[in-house]
# Entry
Amino acid sequence: MWQATADFPSAVENISGALGRGGYEGIQADSHGNLWIVEDVGGTSGTINTHARQPNSFVYRFVPKSPHDLRMGGKLQALQIFSRAHSGPIVFHADNVDGDILSQDMKDLHTYGNVFNTRWVTIHDTDVDGNSPFDANALAKAAGTTPLKRPENGQFRPGSGFREFFFDETGDTNSLTEAADHGGFGAILKLTQVSPAADTGKLSLFYKGDVVHSSLDNIAFWSGHELVAVEDAYATQCARFRLSLRPEGELR
# Structure
């Protein structure tokens, strides 16, 4: 993770001691100066489910000590999602790749109408852990936070006061995936909080991909009610989604 000044010549600094290192993809700042980061790290292919991959990526929030100077450090947090199928959170199992790929939790996460409780868990605090660069993905797993199917990009919904955060999952990028009902074709998820600084929230499925509309990459809001997504599936396509009061989006 680097920061650079906007002048010329630019001053460039490595701030991985504060924000860590990972497969960081999309990053957004909220109204409190926190940084929301989505990670895209492909997981291990299954032994049985050979065309699918284990959920292996996390969503992070960095809470700086000062939003004006990230060099001062702060807390890196990872999103923990609580299961509807059992007590406790949805977590990564290093010794059960196929089990994670086709878990009831992954199916529930990619089912319309389900709502999940969430909380942010601090995985690194520069006041406690120092300023040496660290592996954010490994710390997120050790802290029992929730792995997802390769998030690529995230955006706050305009007009929501930074209380609604939408992010997409690329999925397995394989038309033969055995995890079609478990996020294999990607998805768009919605995280809602009472404020961007809140430690708890609610997560739900906004759009579930299929074999024709999958591998969602960058997303952006066309307006307060329309979300545009580009598809990274060799031949690039563009899909547009209209937000509605229904849990699912309308594909155009």
About this structure: The mean pLDDT is 92. The longest strand covers residues 115-125.
